[in-house]
Amino acid sequence: MDKKRKSRFLSNGYLILVLVFIYLPILYVVFFSFNEGKSLTHFTGFSLRWYQNMFEDRTMLECIYYTVLVAVIATVVSTVVGTIAAIGLSKARPLVRTAALEINNLPVMNPDIVTAIGLMLLFISAKVQLSLVTLILAHITFCIPYVILTVMPKLRQLDDNVAEAALDLGATPWQALTKVILPQIYPAILSGALIAFSMSFDDFVISFFTAGVGINNISMYVYSMKRYNPSVNALSTLIVVVVTLILIMVNLIPHIRDKKLNKGDIVR
Amino acid sequence: MKSFFRMSYPYLLWMAIFIVAPMVMILLYAFTRSGNSMLTFQFTLEHFANFFTDPTFMRVLWTSLRIAFLTTVFCILIGYPAALFIANLPERRQTMMVLLLTLPMWINMLLKTYAWRGILMNFDLESEIKVFIGMVYDFLPYMIIQIHTSIAKMDRELLTAAQDLGANRWKSFTKVTLPLSVPGIISGITLVFLPAVSSFVIPKLLGGGDYVLIGNLIEIYFLTAGDWNFGSAISLIMAVIIIVSMWATKKLDRSAQED
Fold first, then answer.
1. Inside any domain, residue B36
2. How many domains does chain B have?
């Protein structure tokens, strides 16, 4: 018994060490975002000045704006196109489907930098000037594969006969799609959209090669920073808070819903 | 039902333009001389010859492979026990731990790497060590989660059976748990080694200007030197290395499962 307790103590200690390692830089920026001074090594006193600076810094606000704008557009377009394509492909002949999915996998498997320079060469050879539009096109391109990869497995679990039955009973293909197929795969569509959003929001490499001059997202801003701007700590802290809230929500909502459903069962 | 297939037409077109065409462009640039117009291609292998005969490039390639390999090994060494311990926790705390590991993965990598830059400023370390810490940090959660998934899927009864048959804990680990977690290790390797080889942000931010990996080389040739042909050739070489190593890991996986 004592031996068991000792090994549990050791394994918990090890896990705590791993968590400390993984959260170290995050806690570090949160801590120094409240630093009064500019230093990243000496804490001189509490202040909120870097938060204030961030909201007054036009370049930083612009980066945040571009990051969110691109992520929202890329998420909406890639979720719609990806879902439609996944439904179409799930009804394709196996050979066509396999071939299409192999190509679809390329941006996922390829190193980002290869995808990035490929797109850059494409845009420039087609004489399309790099701009906000090329940036958005690039983001849509690398987001769609993730949507398809998330939606596809769910589609393949569906019973084909149900949609078939709807058609036989006189439903139009559109009705079969919106009343039968979509409601069944909608959780997968949501998680696909969430993945697409975070891929786009965090992307650096592909944006770096496909955005026009003067268009910077948060990653590009951090990368090209000449001197360290402590407002970045404030921005990181805000992102950490938002991500935490979103993850808590995403993980709690199904939980709460399940609980309610269970309660309903008991009452019945 | 066949009519639904038509729904994929727009994306098939999209893939042709934005996925297939860019790959063709890279191939085209890698095998032609610079200064070509679209109509007069001049086939050449000189970019590849230049790359493989220049000791500087060879050193960069070697450094990239070495640091990616070390990162992968350390992610397994640190991550395996963590994944195993998590799998032994009660279910609720398992979910909690997985969530805690996933959360930092959603936070911008550039921001985390910049934070490491601040932390590592406190220490006097070689650039390679700094880059190494940054890489292990960035990829460790992926490794832990992959291994944990494969251990969690394992049938627990197997361990009880092994112990009933007289195996001690070490033996039941090496004969049952470890072989069954190989697929997790393999997918962990692909998620760590491949992006590590091509990484160019971490070496740039943590290693300073003097630490160049193959990804940085591609960036230099595309954005600073403006030699797209040579840059494409380097990317192609990197892509081939990655495909070969993926093929090798898959092969390894299969032979491990046959044993």
1. no
2. 1
Alpha-carbon distance of A197 to A140, in angstroms, equals: 10
User: In chain A, where do the E strands start and end?
Assistant: none
pTM: 0.88
**What does the alpha-carbon distance between residue B185 and residue B147 come to, in Å, rounded to a whole number?**
6
Q: How many A/B residue pairs have CB atoms within 8 Å?
A: 211
Number of domains in chain A: 2
CA distance A92 to A94: 6
Do A157 and A41 share a domain, yes or no? no
**Once rounded to an integer, what is the mean pLDDT over residues B102-117?**
89
Minimal C-alpha gap between B7 and chain A (Å)? 5
Same domain, A109 and A208: yes
Judged by CB atoms closer than 8 Å, whether chains meet at B114 and A232 is answered as yes
Instruction: Determine the residue among A22, A128, A148, A181 to mutate to test chain B binding: the one whose Cβ has the most chain B Cβ atoms within 10 Å.
Output: A22
- How far is A121 from B23, CA to CA, in rounded Å? 9
Assess whether A43 and A140 both reside in one domain: no
pLDDT digits (tens, 9 = 90+) for B234-249: 999 998 988 888 888 8
Query: Is B216 in contact with B128 (CB distance < 8 Å)?
Result: no
pLDDT in tens, A144-203: 999 999 999 988 888 878 888 888 888 888 888 888 888 889 889 998 999 999 999 999
Claim to verify: residue A157 and residue A261 sit in the same structural domain: no
CA-nearest residue to A90 within chain B is B5
* Domain region containing A257: 1-57+232-268
Classify the complex by whether its ipTM is higher than 0.90, answering yes or no: no
Tell me: do A65 and A53 sit in the same domain: no
For the CA atoms of B149, A82, A243, B105, the dihedral, rounded to the nearest 10 degrees, stands at 40
**What is the span of the domain harbouring residue B128?**
60-258
Which residues pair with residue B32 across a beta bridge? B43
For residues B161 and B151, give the distance between their C-alpha atoms in angstroms, rounded to a whole number.
16
User: Out of A8-17, A161-170, B43-52, which region has the weakest mean confidence (pLDDT)?
Assistant: A161-170
pLDDT in tens, A212-240: 888 999 999 998 887 778 888 899 999 99
User: What is the 8-class DSSP label of residue B39?
Assistant: S
Q: At B206, which CATH number?
A: 1.10.3720.10
